[in-house]
Write a structure and sequence with these properties.
One of its GO terms (cellular component) is axonemal dynein complex. The protein is an alpha+beta fold. The chain folds into two domains: 12-88 and 103-151, no CATH class; 153-228, no CATH class. The protein has nine helices and four strands.
Length: 249
């Protein structure tokens, strides 16, 4: 039999951890410049938080270094933030490792690579348009910002709204199409926009089909089998249940 050890953090240890966390946040706060303020302003406006709340979330995030990698020459192509419910573990007052814990779902803004956490809330994203170093003077030209709402985990609906209400109107108002000087009059552009419209229509139909899906009730088949005595009983039972299923559909 092995005994389970209880680890209790002393008041001094807790104070030291809190002190280290404060030092880290203060160092990061001192590194913030106009580029970071640009991100903070967009996030605050898009998600509906105060600038102070966004700043605190950023400097407290263990993926803070991803922001610098995004700003660097030929750096990350995207910078993602999730704002959604996250389970927070609350331990007892003594912080025992084997003490009682309660899981509380609290909304949190955090930096993510987008591949490790389930997406159930709002995604705010920044996209680079080139490999240039992101500076305080070019960030508004080199970085695009967008919001993808997936409240309650309804990804199909979020994608449908994002494409139909944001992306398609933006594409149809686009004036500069690079080498295609004719713009929206060009047949290739028209085909492209038609395909996007068709995709959104298919997406909408798929979502509605999924939401209106038929739920089949589990049936205790033993009750029916116990009353079947000969082949004619099986034929009659099969025909009657087939008609019932057709009527239900």
């Amino acid at each position: 039999t092995t005994s389970k050890k209880s680890i209790v953090l002393s008041s001094e240890t807790r104070r030291e951890l809190a002190k280290q966390a404060k030092v880290t946040k203060d160092e990061r706060r001192s590194q913030l410049d106009e580029r970071h303020k640009y991100l903070i302003l967009r996030l605050a406006d898009g998600i509906g938080l105060s600038e102070q709340q966004v700043e605190e979330a950023i400097i407290s995030d263990d993926k803070f270094q991803l922001i610098e990698q995004f700003f660097a020459s030929a750096g990350l192509k995207k910078l993602l933030f999730f704002y959604q419910g996250v389970l927070q573990q609350k331990t007892d007052a003594f912080l025992r490792s084997d003490g009682p814990t309660n899981s509380l779902l609290q909304k949190k803004l955090f930096i993510t690579m987008g591949s490790t956490e389930d997406f159930t809330g709002t995604c705010a994203f920044f996209l680079r348009t080139s490999d240039k170093v992101i500076t305080t003077s070019n960030i508004s030209q080199e970085v695009n910002f967008g919001i993808f709402d997936c409240t309650n985990g309804n990804i199909l609906q979020g994608l449908e709204v994002f494409l139909s209400h944001i992306m398609i109107p933006a594409l149809k108002s686009q004036q500069n199409w690079g080498a295609l000087k004719e713009g929206l009059k060009n047949s290739q552009i028209q085909d492209f926009l038609y395909s996007v419209d068709k995709f959104v229509g298919t997406l909408s139909s798929s979502r509605q089909n999924i939401e209106d899906k038929i739920q089949l009730t589990k049936v205790d088949i033993d009750i029916y089998l116990s009353n079947l005595q000969n082949p004619s009983d099986y034929i009659i039972a099969g025909n009657s249940h087939g008609k019932t299923n057709i009527m239900m559909l």
